[in-house]
Specification:
Layout (H helix, E strand, L loop, with lengths): L12 H8 L5 H7 L4 H6 L3 H10 L3 E8 L5 E7 L11 E7 L6 E7 L2 E6 L3 E6 L4 E5 L5 E9 L4 E8 L8 E5 L7 E4 L5 H4 L6 E3 L2 E6 L2 E6 L4 E6 L8 E5 L2 E7 L5 E9 L4 E9 L2 H8 L2 E10 L5 E7 L2 E6 L4 E6 L4 E7 L16 E2 L6
Antiparallel strand pairs: 1-2, 1-24, 2-3, 4-5, 5-6, 6-7, 7-25, 8-9, 9-10, 10-11, 12-13, 13-14, 14-15, 16-17, 17-18, 18-19, 20-21, 21-22, 22-23
């Protein structure tokens, strides 16, 4: 029997699949699947999809609301990488809306988004595959974080009961389970503060939150909490990963400079002040409008350069460590979320087990 025709004439399939198709962004790859059955088959295997996910960039999420034809949540990625044209730096990944229901983005993990609806219920979706399911079992809980439990491979939600008090415990729900959330820690101090904490980051297999004068750490393997000290007593701080280290950024009181600290010895909790970024606030305000101190975060480019992403009126500005403007992108009412997202076309087996599961249907718009 004759060998099947090559996916791309003149090239071995090994190159076509693993050097060309693997590098495409999810939307482009989905369009390629429509070319023919062979292309669809080659790009639908689990090995290919896992490798494709691994190559996707991890990008900061911007979010905004649209009131056209009802209220909807727009989820957009900001691609800060060098070489990306200004017009392509905002990449819409999802728009969700049902009438006047208010979707709020709560957490993300491995291409999954967890959202709340009118602060009354939770839901889960994969924007790339357009899979969606409500989570009615969780109507009495707030979401603190989402993670993959490495020993089992299951995706889990870390929860706190609504109206939580400091003495209340934390709960875990496994996506796809028919069982209600289970109590894991009745000594989870500060659970009421963690619910609203900014600066959440996954680092060394643990979720970190900065609240008041401490960092709360949740080990996603042992599923237990601990506390970690911080270098200063900040009035608001954001956590992120930089050069393989847990890092923290803090505005000064006048909001004119940002200090960036790095935990150079994570286990011993030893921090070092690495950078101080002076913002030309007056100059930028005159040029771009009002500075919105609520919407900002520190980001790291693929080339190792440190960039600060700052919201001014209807623009997002990229500023380098010398306080110089690198780029400005008009983004309307989009604001940063302090969440990072990596798209995936991998099919998660828990979705079909959830009641109300849909694909490529409302609430996706």
């Amino acid at each position: 029997m004759a060998d099947p025709p090559a996916l791309l004439p003149g090239l071995p399939d090994e190159i076509s699949i693993w050097e060309i198709l693997l590098r495409l962004p999810p939307k482009s790859l989905l369009r390629c699947r429509a070319v023919c059955r062979a292309w669809r088959g080659a790009t639908s295997t689990r090995d290919f999809l896992l490798a494709h996910h691994a190559r996707q960039p991890t990008l900061p999420i911007l979010r905004g609301y649209n009131n056209v034809n009802g209220l909807s949540l727009d989820v957009t990625l900001f691609d800060h990488r060098a070489g990306v044209a200004a017009a392509d730096r905002l990449q819409s990944v999802a728009r969700l809306g049902v009438g006047h229901a208010n979707f709020t983005l709560e957490s993300c993990c491995d291409g999954l988004l967890a959202l709340s609806i009118d602060d009354d219920s939770l839901c889960i979706c994969n924007p790339a595959t357009r899979q969606y399911a409500p989570l009615p079992l969780l109507s009495q809980f707030h979401l603190m974080g989402m993670y993959q439990h490495t020993p089992t491979g299951h995706y889990r939600l870390l929860l706190a009961p609504k109206e939580a008090k400091a003495q209340d415990g934390a709960y875990i729900y496994t996506l796809g389970s028919s069982q209600p959330p289970r109590l894991i820690d009745i000594q989870c101090s500060h659970v009421d503060q963690v619910i609203w904490a900014y600066g959440i980051v996954m680092f060394h297999g643990s979720i970190h939150w900065c609240i008041d004068n401490m960092i709360i750490v949740f080990d996603t393997t042992a599923e237990s909490f601990r506390q970690m000290r911080i270098p200063v007593d900040p009035d608001g701080a954001d956590l992120f990963e930089m050069d393989g280290m847990l890092s923290m950024s803090i505005f000064n009181d006048a909001k004119t400079s940002i200090d960036i600290w790095m935990a150079r010895d994570y286990e011993s909790e030893i921090w070092t002040l690495k950078y101080r970024v002076e913002l030309p606030l007056a100059e930028l305000t005159n040029q771009f409008g009002k500075f919105d101190e609520l919407w900002w975060l520190v980001i790291i480019s693929d080339e190792g350069d440190v960039l600060v992403l700052v919201k001014f009126d209807e623009s997002v500005l990229q500023i380098d460590m010398d306080g110089k403007l690198v780029a400005s992108i008009h983004c309307g009412d989009l604001g940063t979320t302090r969440l990072w997202f990596k798209q995936t076309l991998v099919s998660h087996t828990f979705f079909p087990t959830l009641e109300g599961y849909v694909v490529n249907a409302p609430p996706f718009i």
